[in-house]
Write a structure and sequence with these properties.
Distance between the termini of chain A: 37 Å
Helix content of chain B: under 10%
Largest sheet of chain A: 7 strands, mixed
Shape of chain B: globular
Distance between the termini of chain B: 41 Å
Oligomer: heterodimer
Order of helices and strands of chain A: EEEEEEEEEEE
Number of strands of chain B: 11
Structural class of chain B: mainly beta
Strand content of chain A: over 45%
Shape of chain A: globular
Order of helices and strands of chain B: EEEEEEEEEEE
Number of strands of chain A: 11
């Protein structure tokens, strides 16, 4: 089946540094990838929709300059948390959709970010 | 805007029981509906995908149904096992967006 690889699975960084998270579709092409943030015991909160070759669409309240998204190829999207602060500590998950309106969504295993 | 609701929020059953998880959505104009499982600290694993033209899908002990006109889907788990303990989420695809329910946290007691 389709696999989405998300890396790293865990990262600890100091306040003020930037962290990059990668999301790769391993055996299919994904024209659209989605980035979510999940707080403990809550459902997914969509942060942005990443379209290959164009600018990402951010959800209301999500800072574009804070969460930089690059979708440079049909198999790779990256999320960079810039100048991270402790309140950015969270679980970040990406998902990718195969081409076609009826196609399923596949998820990465998530990245646990801790900012100290 | 599409709203997806899952009931119950939490469920605890003894091992071996059959159980049903519910998902409802407000707008029937969907492409498909997907059921996912999420283990603590992990991403989501797709369990079943039902296209809008389909009524149900089965995989092993899992059976998902879809009634688009009434905006409902159910996930039936037969002969539950402790390994089924997880959070189950449903998501509907509409346009280029996916709308998620808040999940049902399932605990199967040995």
């Amino acid at each position: 089946g389709a696999v989405v690889s998300q890396h790293p699975s865990r990262v600890i960084c100091k306040s003020g540094t930037s962290v990059k998270i990668e999301c790769r579709s391993l055996d299919f092409q994904a024209t659209t990838m989605f980035w979510y943030r999940q707080f403990p015991k809550q459902s997914l909160m969509l942060m942005a929709t990443s379209n290959e070759g164009s600018k990402a669409t951010y959800e209301q309240g999500v800072e574009k300059d804070k969460f930089l998204i690059n979708h440079a190829s049909l198999t790779l999207s990256t999320l960079t948390v810039t100048s991270a602060h402790p309140e950015d500590s969270s679980f970040y998950i990406c998902s990718a959709r195969e081409v076609g309106d009826n196609s399923p969504l596949h998820f990465g295993n998530g990245t646990r970010l801790t900012v100290t | 805007k599409q709203e997806v609701t899952q009931i119950p929020a939490a469920l605890s059953v003894p091992e071996g029981e059959n159980l049903v998880l519910n998902c409802s959505f407000t707008d029937s104009a969907i492409y498909n509906l997907q059921w996912f499982r999420q283990d603590p600290g992990k991403g989501l694993t797709s369990l079943l995908l039902i296209q809008s033209s389909q009524r149900e899908q089965t995989s092993g002990r899992l059976n998902a149904s879809l009634d688009k006109s009434s905006g409902r889907s159910t996930l039936y788990i037969a002969a539950s096992q402790p390994g089924d303990s997880a959070t189950y989420l449903c998501a509907v695809a509409a346009g280029n967006q996916f709308y998620f329910g808040t999940g049902t946290s399932l605990t199967v007691i040995p």
